[in-house]
Amino acid sequence: MKTVLIAPRPLDVLELPADLDGREGTNRSNGHAQIAASDDLNAVRAWLARVADKQTTFENYRKEAERLLLWAIVQLGKPLSSLTHEDLQLFREFLKDPQPRSRWVAEGGRKFPRHDPRWRPFYGELAASSQRQAMVIINALFAWLVEAGYLAGNPLSLSRQRTRRTKPRVTRYLDRELWQEVKLHIDSLPKDTPRERERYLRARWLFTLFYLGGLRISEVSGNTMGCFFCRRDADGHERWWLEVLGKGDKEGLVPASAEMMVELGRYRRERGLPALPSRHEDTPLVLPLGKSMKPLTRAALHTIVKGIFAGAAGRLRLRGDGFTGQADLLDHASAHWLRHTAGSHMADGGTDLRTVRDNLRHASLTSTNPYLHTPDEQRHRETEEKHRVDW
């Protein structure tokens, strides 16, 4: 009798019945496999093990592979290694609207811990860009399993048609008016008690770091204050920089403007530290409230940022129905929106696009000549002159 699972479970604890584990999958290769996995679950785990040392990549890959595997066994009652081209077209449609919602989407759009029984593979609707990214990752999974000799073919390869792309346009950012509302909300936070003042200055420093530095949330959680350093330029001026280990373990150099260093000093003094950090100091860029000196996790930083956006949205709603649209936009905003906001405001403010590219540590300006760089000293001067937070 064919087994059909009725509830999605995380890959960590998932156990597949014999007729759904893929040992007899119709797309299994008959040749010599390069991996030891004999079933779909272990094949997926072998694929994920390649990126286990890169937390963000691992979590993104696991999320998409998990959704596909669970959809195949729960929704279709079919092992991953038996999926066809037609099945993947159905899955593409499923990503647009996962149904039944109670089975696939977490209540209230919350991201519950993986061990929580309320955990679900989805915790909200996927944007079109997220749907496309999911299929890109799944295609990479299938391609690797074919290369490893586990699968006979990639069912997605039949649908990979190169379509003409429209010019990319950043939409997930805050215009200057909405950014001003966020700053006003932060400045309105209570400051009467030492703990309230610490919370206020931490929020102010965190948003300064995101906006002036254009940092990713993983870069905030993964780097330290010892990454700041000072050097003299050709004219004898001392300039501060932030050395960042970022996406793909690439090192980047972020101009630390005088404005950023003032905010850093204010935050450090509140924590009982000298205003300026020493080289290679291991103090995290952002700290928990209280005496702890441990780094905040990405999840904790995400919670702080979402809380600030929610507070700013609440202030806007108090002004009446005419501000509902702006408030709704803030409810959807995340830390990465601040990175897009920084880039957009720099470009709108007349900053050279090469400076914007280098500040955000992008590889190119939509594949612009990779050898085109602005000198670091010029980049620092232009950033300081044209990109300000102005608390």
From TrEMBL:
One of its GO terms (cellular component) is cytoplasm. Residues 169-385 form the Tyr recombinase domain. Its main location: cytoplasm. Residues 38-146 form the Core-binding (CB) domain. Pfam families: Phage_integrase. It is found in: Cytoplasm. Keywords: Cell cycle, Cell division, Chromosome partition, Cytoplasm, DNA integration, DNA recombination, DNA-binding. The keyword Cytoplasm applies. This is Integrase. Residues 374-391 have a biased composition (Basic and acidic residues). InterPro entries: CB, DNA_brk_join_enz, Integrase-like_cat_sf, Integrase_catalytic, Integrase_recombinase_N, Tyrosine_recombinase_XerCD. Coiled coil: none annotated. Residues 364-391 are annotated as: Disordered. GO terms for molecular function: DNA binding. One of its GO terms (biological process) is DNA recombination. It comes from the Bacteria. SUPFAM superfamilies: DNA breaking-rejoining enzymes (SSF56349).
